[in-house]
């Protein structure tokens, strides 16, 4: 957010000085103590002109992992580590497979500026998942006390089919529950007539 500040010198109360003389440095210290802003100021014809860019000192990144397509084990795939909404732009994103750093098949976009002064980056890893593999996207950023790690585990075909069966059974159960409630509601209406 950009903020222009124009202040008449004779309208400003003195800060830290008994003197009635205008001291722009004292005022600038006073103003910066009260605003979370970074900017440039200049005095021109007894008017302090300031252009401040109000930005937070740092914003923690949001980290997510997703495969480019849902493939079974032993099939070539691409894992995408999406790191979004962070500030400042300095960031380090690394991939690990079973706690071993992967560097050979890693591709990254440049850091992209968002419209709200935050940034984002995508870091992709080409991989062929094996049973039991754990892939980790680790992010280091000045806003974080310690690195953030997000894991992705490869699923076997049987685990995927069990999960799909469970979801299908749940949906089917909801359909039968809904039909049962409709039939019950209609039968109660018929008894009331």
Automatic annotation (TrEMBL):
Cross-referenced SMART domains: IGc1
Signal peptide (UniProt feature, chain positions): none
Annotated ranges, domain Ig-like: 61-149
Organism the protein comes from: Cervus elaphus hippelaphus
Parts forming coiled coils: none
Gene3D superfamilies the UniProt entry points to: Immunoglobulins (2.60.40.10)
Sequence intervals crossing the membrane: 163-183
Name by which UniProt lists this protein: Ig-like domain-containing protein
Similarity section: Belongs to the MHC class II family.
Keyword terms: Membrane, Transmembrane, Transmembrane helix
UniProt xrefs under PANTHER family: HLA CLASS II HISTOCOMPATIBILITY ANTIGEN, DQ BETA 1 CHAIN (PTHR19944:SF101), MHC CLASS II-RELATED (PTHR19944)
CDD domains associated with the record: IgC1_MHC_II_beta_HLA-DQ_I-A (cd21001)
Domain of life of the source: Eukaryota
């Amino acid at each position: 957010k950009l903020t222009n500040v124009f202040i008449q010198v004779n309208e400003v109360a003195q800060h830290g000085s008994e003197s009635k003389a205008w001291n722009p440095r004292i005022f600038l210290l006073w103003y910066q103590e009260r605003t979370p802003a970074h900017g440039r100021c200049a005095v021109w014809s007894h008017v302090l002109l300031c252009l401040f860019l109000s930005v937070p000192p740092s914003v923690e990144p949001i980290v997510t992992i997703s495969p480019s397509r849902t493939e079974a084990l032993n099939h070539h795939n691409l894992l995408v580590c999406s790191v979004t909404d962070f500030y400042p732009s300095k960031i380090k994103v690394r991939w690990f497979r079973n706690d071993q750093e992967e560097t050979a098949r890693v591709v990254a976009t440049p850091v992209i500026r968002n419209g709200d002064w935050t940034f984002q980056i995508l870091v992709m890893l080409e991989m062929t998942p094996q049973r039991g593999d754990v892939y980790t996207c680790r992010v280091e950023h000045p806003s974080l006390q310690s690195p953030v790690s997000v894991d992705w585990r490869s699923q076997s075909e049987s685990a995927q089919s069990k999960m799909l069966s469970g979801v299908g059974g749940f949906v089917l159960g909801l359909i039968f529950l809904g039909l049962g409630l409709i039939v019950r509601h209609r039968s109660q209406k018929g008894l009331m007539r």
